[in-house]
Amino acid sequence: MNWFTGRHFNQDIITVAAGYYFGFNLSYRDVVEIMADRGVSIHHITIMRWVHHYGTIFQMLWRRHKQSTSQSWRADETYIKVNGSWDYLYRAIDNQGLTLDFSLRKKRDYLATYHFLKRPPKLVRDQHGATLKAIKEVTKDGLMDLNAHHCSKYRNNLIEQDHRFIKRHRVQSAGFQNIRTAASTLAGVEVIHAMRKETRRNGSLFGFSVITELKQMLAA
What angle in degrees, to the nearest 10, is found between the helix axes of 129-140 and 110-117? Predict the structure, then answer.
């Protein structure tokens, strides 16, 4: 499927603009200047619309093609401010630090936790009340063995350290206006972050390239 049909700009330009925004700590106007240096004139609102549109598409394609053999999840949530209030970004990585999944939710409650935790065969996370209640329901529904859940402050340090990239990336952001655009933007950021970690683990000879990785994913 061609995700760029009907766009005024071609696929390469959109991929570079959106990829740079997702991959680096840049504002929309920073990306405008980068593109202008390459002879492409784009309004920052256009780049914002690309980010909001393609973030979820990149997430879908990444989930379709990602490969993970890990049976152990490190799950945790971090705060994200959306329209003046705090929402919760649920995140999971494996024991090597590679991204497994993520989901932005308005509340840190039992339902949000249940929907995020009903997949891992083995889980390490904190002892938050909503988490423990969700885990009981997940095991009751036969989706996870109760013995596969471990509460450990220190074993979960790996994902708490991984939160820092997402927090640092949003320094240049003017803020999210609603949860839909926040979820789409963070999806793109998470996908690029996941790709970068995989490249580092595999010891790529040429290092990581946001644009190369996106093109390969879109072509797959």
Answer: 50
